[in-house]
TrEMBL record:
Superkingdom: Bacteria
Name under which the protein is recorded: Fur family ferric uptake transcriptional regulator
Presence of keyword Zinc: yes
PANTHER family xref list: FERRIC UPTAKE REGULATION PROTEIN, ZINC UPTAKE REGULATION PROTEIN
Pfam families in alphabetical order: FUR (PF01475)
Amino acid sequence: MSTPHARSSLRVEAALGLLRGRGERVTRARQAVLEVLDGTDDHLTADEIVHLASARAPGVHRATVYRALATLGDLEIVSHTHIGGSAAVYHLTVSGQHLDPAATGHAHVQCSTCGAVIDIPAELLQPLVAKLSADLDFQLAPRHAALLGTCATCRRSPDYVP
């Protein structure tokens, strides 16, 4: 069986380098969380991350994984989004040697019929962000929550009712 370090990708190593560069500890739980998020394109909840991280780092407690997610989020190495009808989901925001603007610069839409979550470029929502700011002095955080709607597949279904 390979060691956790041997399994690490460039993104995980970059994230660990950011932790070290900021004087933060590199713990088994933090590394396991980073490896789990690096290993999927899925939108994982904290509970799913706990399950997968505990397989990578046996003995790491659930609360420790939650603290790791919180710290990595505070350091903007991990980002979370609230998805309608479920818990927040997480993803890694690191690419190469730095924070990845493409990873942090996307928003989400969710199909209220099938539950699919789709990543979209955050700049698609920029006109709405600007309009809300100008008209209502309201600062929208489009990457923090998914917008609900109906995906093309569900709209094409013979059972679809608008």
